[in-house]
Design a protein that fits this description.
The chain has 474 residues and is α+β, with helices and mostly antiparallel strands. The chain is built from 18 helices and 16 strands. α5 packs across α9 and α7 crosses α9.
Length: 474
């Protein structure tokens, strides 16, 4: 038998020549197979729940306005009956902290549940894949269509899919902008072709970001762009629930007839059908162990359970479990006992404290705000009546939905009085700047700066005290 001809790379290496090795691996398109089962139902439940909220909330009315509206131009945020101003950024900070701690807690307990069920990338990928299946067919049909030469039928299916994807992306962009511009007005502007430049930009930007991420990039966003995949291991431990393949039970894998005895053949329960790989949205093989690409969607669990039912083996070859459970053969009760470990308890304690603090702050919050600005253009001066006058500008922000009349008073400096109007009326969810003159009899206080407090009260609403200074010239 003649010796095989060596490859050019091997021949070059044998001759001591330099060879070029490419570190770039061309991306292979992933064709996820559709799957049914318990976890698939949960995944679609979250798809419907999140999208009903996202697409429906801008159309919900609260009184005479949109229930949830972030009016950046007026610098007011409306969340049902709550009106927030930029000065309330502390609440946004608290919400971000709660979100981060919740993510840490869920990850420590049960891995990447956020990624697998509720992350926008996962949700929109599921929606776009559904459109693709409805138009091009399931996995095998899509693979055949992509491999086939271009034809009128193929072009028609591809064009229809792209049109549906783009339309859904633009609808998503329109809804997103509807949280910042009243969506009913925005719809009228769209119908009249009267959109502003920023509205056009954000509708198309958000729409095509959705179209690109969910239609084309898909698993690449999770694998290469999302930072969570990289630092998730810092939040995992050996008692974290993860999607696992029971290698002790499944190996050695191999095909066999349904009536065959796997023990007699020296085989494990894995029939090597590769369906767990075919349903994976990131294209990994869970049988190779935990990988950072795994988003814990549990599609492989659903399809493996179906296969186990068909061949008559117990379910759970692929299941949610922990490393300690696999090593020590623990059951469900032992796994649940390990949930309340120190890391989890610390997350729960901190998260509970922040949530309680946020709720208490909102409940005890005075529904109006006051800003005091001393008029630097008008210095302390002597006016008629032998009195010293300082001028201020007071901004009263009414965070209620009804007009309110606020009473102004000043304290901490004997003899100091308000020489201008002592009340101001502000419409609901509006703010108003008013000039205020304070006067003090000459000689009743030493020269220099004196601390004073303005008191602004609204009957039946609350009271706010703000600190300022009164200047007495020499």
């Amino acid at each position: 038998m003649s010796n095989p001809t060596p490859s050019p790379k091997k021949a070059a290496a044998a001759a001591g020549e330099d060879t070029m090795v490419s570190l770039y691996q061309a991306h292979k398109k992933v064709y996820p197979r559709s799957v049914t089962g318990l976890f698939a139902k949960w995944r679609w439940f979250f798809v419907f729940a999140t999208q009903i909220f996202f697409y429906g909330m801008p159309w919900l009315q609260w009184g005479e306005r949109q229930a949830m509206l972030f009016d950046l131009e007026a610098r007011r945020f409306y969340i049902f009956g709550l009106v927030l101003y930029p000065q309330d950024v502390i609440y946004l900070t608290a919400i971000l902290i709660i979100s981060a701690l919740s993510l840490f807690l869920f990850t420590a307990v049960a891995g990447r549940q956020w990624c697998g069920y509720a992350c926008p990338q996962t949700v929109y990928t599921e929606i776009y894949l559904w459109f693709e299946r409805m138009i091009e067919g399931d996995r095998s049909a899509r693979m055949r269509l992509d491999a086939a030469p271009m034809s009128a039928a193929k072009f028609g299916r591809k064009a229809l899919k792209q049109a549906v994807w783009i339309a859904f992306g633009l609808w998503t962009g329109f809804t997103f902008v509807g949280y910042f511009t009243p969506i009913r007005e925005l719809a009228q502007h769209v119908l009249q072709w009267n959109l502003g430049a920023w509205e056009i930009f954000w509708i198309f930007f958000y729409g095509f970001a959705t179209y690109g991420n969910a239609g084309f990039m898909r698993e690449q966003v999770c694998m290469y762009m999302c930072p969570y995949a990289r630092f998730q291991s810092a939040m995992f431990d050996k008692d974290t629930l993860i999607v696992t393949y029971d290698a002790k039970r499944g190996e050695p894998r191999g095909g066999r007839s349904k009536s065959a005895d796997p023990k007699a053949l020296g085989l494990g329960d894995c029939v090597n059908c590769t369906l767990c790989v075919q349903v994976c949205p990131t294209g990994i093989d869970i049988r190779n162990g935990l990988q950072y690409e795994c988003i814990s969607c549990a599609a492989c669990i659903d399809v493996c359970d179906e296969v186990m039912d068909k061949v008559g083996y117990p379910r759970g070859l692929i299941r949610y479990s922990t490393e300690h459970a696999l090593e020590q053969g623990w059951g469900r009760k032992e796994i649940l006992r390990q949930v309340l470990r120190p890391r989890v308890l610390i997350y729960v304690a901190i998260l509970s404290a922040v949530v309680v603090a946020l709720i208490a702050s909102l409940v005890l919050r005075t529904p109006f705000k006051v800003d005091i600005v001393r008029d630097r253009a008008t210095l302390a001066r002597l006016v008629d009546g032998n009195q010293i006058e300082n001028v201020y500008r007071i901004q009263v922000m009414n965070a209620t939905e009804k007009p309110q009349t606020f009473q102004l008073s000043v304290e901490d400096l004997p003899g100091l009085e308000i020489a201008s109007d002592k009340s101001v009326t502000v419409d609901g969810a509006q703010s108003l700047w008013v000039p205020v003159q304070l006067r003090l009899p000459y000689g009743s206080a030493s020269s220099g700066s004196h601390t004073i407090h303005f008191r602004v009260t609204a009957p039946g609403v609350g009271e706010v005290r703000e600190k300022s200074i009164f200047m007495v010239p020499r």
